[in-house]
Amino acid sequence: MKLAWQDTDVIDMPTLGTRIAALDGLDEVPGGYGAKLEWARTRAKAFRAEFAATGTPDSVTTCDLITLPYPTKFGLFRASRAVAPFVSITNRMLVVRWTESDGRNRVLLFEPSDHELGQNTPYFAALIRRTPGPLRNLLTTRHGTVLDHLARLGIEPEDVDYLLFDHLHTQDLRRWIGTTGPQADLGGTLKPAFPNAKVVVQRRELLAMSRLHPLQRPWYQPETYRDVPPDAFLAVDGALVLGPGVAVVATPGHVYGNQTLLLNTSTGIWASSENAIAAECLTPEHSRMPGIARWTRTWQQEVVLNANTIETTAEQYNSLILEKTLVDRSQTDPRFLQFFPSSELTASWANPGTSPTFTHKALTHR
After folding, report:
1. Cα separation, 201 vs 40, whole angstroms
2. Which among 229, 235, 226, 176 is positioned nearest to 201, based on CA atoms?
3. What is the pLDDT of residues 18-50, one digit of tens each?
């Protein structure tokens, strides 16, 4: 399937931000994944002080979007002994604002998912078909839409500069960035809801989406990218500082072009991605969920992955160690880290044995 950016120069577009030299060079590390693991840990330690010195953004606000079921075998990969086949996760958007050195104000939306269209992703569409409507409604809670949250915060859509996702699983961006031709399912050619926003995405993911592997296909909607404007994308490589206390870091594994939002705030450094679904998955020895602490002792693995695609599992493990090393400890409970899952494990009566030991629920900075 031909995507919008094929036969264009979108893959060769200039990138933005300031390159993070301390995190360059992973692909050139000699040896196997064990050597790369030590590289990730060492380089993350070196970059922490450098990142803190960039300053802080003006504000970070958390907006709940939707709580929905997700397979336990994916979210708590191999570690859980819960009988419940599903966990509940809450998808959240972060609204990040900062001021450039020249006085320009910037607005970045992290994980502004259009969940109404996201449910057409093959895996979730099949799950929806198998679940009776009343049960589906009982297990799903819609908290608010992207545009409603922005209106509440007093942010006009045309003031949004960047849209950032940790990866493009389930994402249908047509309503956000518009289309260049009519869309049969949406009633015509779409004007962009965010006319001035660029989608910041790792170049690797754009390239991978052009020819999906069978393991990837259940989680993407490539047909929705045929008629989106190529110039709405900003292809980046690796790690970049975008603004004071705001960075994007390549964290491959969950998908080929996975990336993490890094924030320096009044409580220290945070990372947000979907590499794990709970903060306790980075310090599983402190988890009270059935099986988690025992699993980490038995197998001497210090993190529990969110592993639905398992594109490159060892890379994802290393990426989560990178995130674990970059962030600070929670001021609420120092056993846990300031890792904020973009889809966070949420307690539910329907999923016994999957109630998290600790949740952040929000990431706030003013």
Report:
1. 21
2. 235
3. 999 899 888 888 889 999 999 999 999 999 999
- C-alpha 157/C-alpha 196 separation (Å) is 8
Q: What is the DSSP string of 259-300?
A: EEEEEEETTEEEEE-SS-SSGGGTSGGG--STTHHHHHHHHT
Count, residues in the chain: 366
Phi and psi at 185, nearest 5°, equal: -80, -15
Put simply, whether the predicted model's pTM sits higher than 0.85 gets the answer yes
Domains, the chain: 10-346 (3.60.15.10)
Q: How far apart are the first and last CA of the chain?
A: 44
184-193, long-range: CB < 8 A, 24+ apart = 192/232, 193/147, 193/157
Place of tokens 């629920």: 361
Q: Compute the distance between CA of residue 72 and CA of residue 70 in angstroms, rounded to an integer.
A: 6
